[in-house]
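chain and backbone:
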Amino acid sequence: MSIRLTPLTDPDFRPFSRRIAWLAADADGNPVGSAFLRLNSRETQSHLAELQLNVHPAERRRGVGSQLLDAVINAARDHEVRTLLGDATAGSPADLFLAVST
């Protein structure tokens, strides 16, 4: 499956943080997933960032999440982030993905 990642401008700007966003689309241009990296602007927390990653249920286990996660990790490194925070419900597809990805 061919996936194209498109970086997006995210209008969700907050006084002490901003987000970087990506949209994953299949070869026909259909959206199949998205990822967001919230960077902290506070000097004391600039090493922390929050990850949000979503993949359409029909597209899971096809590498979409891995490609999005790679983009997030590379951007985090570019911004000198050392710790990524993310939420996943125990036993959910997200929990299983993160357990395999780390």
In short: The chain has two helices and five strands. The mean pLDDT is 88.
